[in-house]
Amino acid sequence: MERIADPVMSICAAETEVELRRVVQRSIERFGFQSYNLSFRKKDRREFMSEPTLTNWSGADLARYADEGWVEKDPLLEMAVGRPGRPMVWTPAQWASSVHSTYGEYIASTGIISGATAALDERPGSLSAMTALSFADASRSRSDAYAIQIIGQVAVTRAAVLGIPGADVIGASYLNRLSSRQMEILGWIAQGKSNADIAIIVGSSKRTVDYHVSEILRKLEVASKAQAAAIYSSQ
């Protein structure tokens, strides 16, 4: 929980687009990734890759991807089309013996060793997902992919609050789901307070604050009911 709690709090506290991009970068690095691309509610594959909502990929990276025609061949984009499955971790080698072998070769040629991809939205007819990439050899688990999904969902919500183009989540409608106590706790989270600190400030037990934090994550749709329960039970 501590590994994902700090990134969530930092993203919620970002005050500018530049700061948000910097915090998202630090957040993925916490899980061993160095690069990310987040696109939200794009109308088609080409827009998804050419006009990302938040990314640290260079223009040259995006241009190469488009020029070589990978936009129609990328198997990872299937996860972004309005019917997302569970987030996944992957390596280029896993496509070696499949119809996507050439895509695996392309990914390997860029120096990517592993990645995590997670869908961010279920709206039919649009594409929303975040991919994080690693150029370092490291073991991966599905929990890394869930972390990337949570980071992406929180980042999109914060981007909407900051008025960043391409993040058309209505932040206020999400906040209206929270109780007054949860709004108070969220305010302290945004100021970088730990759950233990918040418990002292609001005169409650840490376990109660842990529960409210898991409910905040669930209501803001940055974690599923099962994920939120797992977060609460891990405190």
From TrEMBL:
Coiled-coil residues: none
Record keywords, A-Z: DNA-binding, Transcription, Transcription regulation
Limits of the HTH luxR-type domain: 171-235
InterPro entries in alphabetical order: Sig_transdc_resp-reg_C-effctor, TF_LuxR_autoind-bd_dom, TF_LuxR_autoind-bd_dom_sf, Tscrpt_reg_LuxR_C, WH-like_DNA-bd_sf
Top-level taxon: Bacteria
Range of residues in the leader sequence: none
Pfam families in the cross-refs: Autoind_bind, GerE
Family annotation (SMART domains): HTH_LUXR
Transport as UniProt keyword: no
Keyword DNA-binding attributed: yes
PANTHER family for the chain: DNA-BINDING TRANSCRIPTIONAL ACTIVATOR DEVR_DOSR
Name of this chain's protein: LuxR C-terminal-related transcriptional regulator
